[in-house]
Amino acid sequence: SRLHATDVTSSSFHLLWPQLLSQDTGYYSLEYGPRADPAGRRTQQLSGALTSLVLSDLTPQTTYEVLLVPESNVHYFPPQSISVTTLPEEISPVQVLISESGPRSFHVSWAPVLDSVASYQVLYGPLPGNSVQVLQVDGRHNSTLVEHLAPNTTYLVTVTAIYRSGKERSLSAKACTQEGEHKE
């Protein structure tokens, strides 16, 4: 029955608090800002009917001080405060490289490799078309071989990083297989 935070990400969190006021009995004054930067504090007035709010556009890996002051015209309620630390930034794969392209296979690699990634999914399918196949790759690896492809075909390859937090980030690239061997 106190002010608390849920759904913490690298740039936002969700504040929840007990219903102390109503639309008619007052309003809340919300102050928040990075602990290390008292000058960067922001203040918002909130309707007395609210019991939750999402704070967004925050800085990753930063501890925020949050102060909620119930401004009641009926009762005195003590201010409630909490500290919330945002998660480290989750960086998407910034490059996907296709190499060693042959008639029936190519090699896909990506960067950077991050500790916060649990696994990667490599999706690939011919263009145009909607048949897609998926390879699961352990988060410690940054490359895989895609095989059993059709020669002389353009494939769309999407690498999705699946973070331990449950978030996903994707990056796509196109790959072309070589023409098949010509029989003499």
Automatic annotation (TrEMBL):
Secreted as UniProt keyword: yes
Organism lineage: Eukaryota, Metazoa, Chordata, Craniata, Vertebrata
Domain of life of the source: Eukaryota
One Gene Ontology cellular component: extracellular region
UniProt cross-references to Pfam families, sorted A to Z: fn3
Gene name per UniProt: Vwa1
Protein name as annotated: VWA1 protein
PANTHER family, per the entry: FIBRONECTIN TYPE-III DOMAIN-CONTAINING PROTEIN, TENASCIN
Keyword Secreted annotated: yes
Keyword terms: Glycoprotein, Repeat, Secreted, Signal
Gene3D superfamilies: Immunoglobulins
UniProt-listed InterPro entries: ECM_Regulatory_Proteins, FN3_dom, FN3_sf, Ig-like_fold
Cell location: Secreted, Extracellular space
Origin species: Erithacus rubecula
Residue ranges constituting the Fibronectin type-III domain according to the UniProt record: 1-90, 92-180
